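Protein 1 of 2
SEQ + STRUCT:
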Amino acid sequence: ELGHNLAGDGRDAGKKLLGFSGKQTCNTTRSKEAFCSAMETMFKEDCRGYNTDVDVGNVLRKTLQTLRIHQVRIDVNYATLVLNVLCLEGLAGYLQPGYNVLDGSKTLIRNYRPWARKLFPLTRSIKAAQDRRQYWRLRRQYTSSVGIPCSSVAEIALSPAALGLAVVVIGALTQGQGGVPSGNA
């Protein structure tokens, strides 16, 4: 599962990425090893895991670059999810500059396991409670710094739904580990 790889295991993340296409073009032992080594090096530099101020956008851009350099194919559904996460990460950074998408999604990602799918609604509820606490903290901070109550626009932008949207997409990235979706990139 990719979720635990976000804790900093680049070699294992590389192995998982090699399985993201039914028609892998990086198929020799030597090319696979070179790709996994490149992922390991990149993770050591840029993705050391949760609570290390990981720039998710930077990690995803470097991952896409590494995929291209090593001619690793991923199916279009995975590529679309990566691009969506890049957009959502940028949006989260604009709306709340101190928000770290990886750290914010930790509860969902770490608790998403094939054997624990029945517990996922509980995990999602825990994450929603965390998002509500963050929302109210930001709302109090905004109100005290500006001196006026939040406007409707600010309330929507800082709502738990807006802050948690990127988390749902990142969680979706970890769902397809067992099978290969249709479509190719």
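Protein 2 of 2
SEQ + STRUCT:
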Amino acid sequence: VSSACFALKNYTYEEKNLRALRRFDEVTSLLEDASKYSAKAEIRVEAEEIRERLRLQGEEDDMLEQIAYSSLLDAMDQPQMTVDQAVENIRDVLKQYEWSEKLICYGIGSVLSLSRQSPEYLTRITQFDVLKTIVHTMYKQQANANIQERGCETLKFLAQQGNRPRTMICDVDGSSILIAALRHHKDNESVRGPAVGALE
């Protein structure tokens, strides 16, 4: 236990590592037990220190998510925002908040919603590197069914809009990520259905 706490203490000096640990509820439970019940005072102190780092990171991430979420809402709802500004806004959130499932899912969903609104949005989305960003995010989050579902739904819709969007999807290696989604989530119809539809 002492070695584990020491390793976790060093590991959690980096923000990205704190975010990775926060995905596992078991870590929090184990640290809580160690901080309360370990026979060694040193382990109790280290475990509590790590718990505090995780708590503070959680509070900071919640605040960042709220700010970015408001930004995405602006992209969807603000009439004074140009099409280019709205699309760039969504793209930037997807790039900057890869650690947030909530923002990724909402951001990809925003791309789908805007694409359905008008041909102008559809044209801008395929001109900017939004498609590339979506595919890149899906590659990095292959195990996350919710992100794969949103990504496959969006790629399916775009693929059905004509030759240019289909070509753009192929150019950013979208076919490969759709096949990967089928492989990783073959028993999940919410992923499998749109993935197959996008590949047809």
